[in-house]
Amino acid sequence: MTDVTTDPLDALVGRDLAGRAALVTGASRGIGHAIAAELLTRGASVTITARKPDELAAAADALVAEAAGGDADRVLAVPGNAGSAEARADAVTRTVERFGNLAILVNNTGINPTYGPLVDADLDAVRKTFDTNVVAALGFVQQAYRAWMGEHGGAIVNLASVAGLRSTGVIAAYGASKAALIRLTEELAAQLGPAIRVNAVAPAIVRTRFATALYADDEEAVAAAYPMKRLGAPEDVARLVGFLVSDAAAWITGETVRVDGGILATGTLGSA
Question: Which residues fall in a coiled-coil region (predicted)?
Fold first, then answer.
């Protein structure tokens, strides 16, 4: 629960996040972009970050046109590398300056530069994976806490993965980093409550450019392993995040919610 109030009428018409500002990292495409669109649709103002300025600017234009109803004042693009402390501070500071608050943080940025057995993994690649997927997420939380949430409260969602819940073999370093992010989520929830809620979501394979290598060879066969008989869409994850940062989830913190098409219920991750 934050001290940013929402008009009951806004909640009634589906704009339950009106008056709140969100920062979504890694939001130039894929799941991050869909999350930004979901939050905008629900009334929030949104800052998006990503490394490539041109792609980020195009993503911001699309969000203004499609999700913000043409209101450019509700979308801010701040290019920067999540691994940079300076870039993290810049994104947080500019969000508070532009919108007057930072009630929502979504740590979506993630990388997966190494595949295969951990005994053969390049340690520099593993180190970079943890630095981006775990340390940078904590860095954003620290910045958001100092700039606004520590005094006013808020909601944080970390993008984990089913690979952080079950061994995959093929994306082992990535999975280990996401397992660490899940534990980080629990620790932060225990330390920052009651004013700040911290949750994670754990998707299985979602049809994005990031995950292409996991399904491109035979999407139909990969999807057949899922009880829902399809891969995820970015919007499947975005709607869950929208719920978790809303007041409808006011008594949920420290949780990692699976959005996996039922794949973990089968006892295997297949090729995920």
Answer: none
